[in-house]
Design a protein that fits this description.
Blueprint (H helix, E strand, L loop, with lengths): L9 H38 L2 E8 L4 E7 L3 E10 L4 E11 L5 E4 L2 H7 L3 E8 L6 E5 L3
Antiparallel strand pairs: 1-2, 2-5, 3-4, 3-6, 6-7
Length: about 140
């Protein structure tokens, strides 16, 4: 018979497990609440947003866009290809105020050297999935 070896009692083990589980649940719950609220604010902001383009000059590499309804932090610029795919070109950092036209520049020669069958440009609001504007390229 072994003497001197003692473990914790089942009651103490149960209390420790409950305390540990409660602490983990509190941490995860706090994180989830903050994350959910930030996503709701983002969805509300995006629902108020509309994006349009006024003018572009493909040969000069300029595009004028405007976000209507709310300010945005950044735009992503893509090239829209014949294969119904888009290829990332660049991110344009803001902030961009609501209802204020913004000029975005791009390098036409670099685009044409890297991609074939270009059908247009796509402007996307960063952080607002689905808020895009297609700009057809007419050459």
């Amino acid at each position: 018979m072994l003497h001197g070896l003692k473990g914790i009692s089942p009651i103490v083990a149960s209390v420790l497990l409950i305390a540990f589980s409660t602490a983990i649940a509190a941490i995860v719950g706090t994180w989830a609440m903050g994350y959910t609220q930030s996503e709701l604010v983002s969805l509300e902001t995006c629902s108020k947003l509309d994006l349009t383009y006024y003018n572009y000059d493909y040969d000069e590499g300029t595009l004028i866009v405007q976000n209507i309804g709310t300010s945005v932090k950044a735009y992503n610029l893509y090239v829209f290809l014949d294969t119904n795919q888009k290829a990332f070109i660049k991110t344009v950092e803001g902030p961009f105020e609501a209802n204020t036209p913004t000029e975005i520049t791009f390098d036409k020669d670099t685009i044409e050297n890297n991609y074939e069958d270009i059908k247009g440009l796509v402007i996307e609001v960063v952080g607002c999935k689905g808020k895009t504007q297609f700009v057809p390229i007419i050459q």
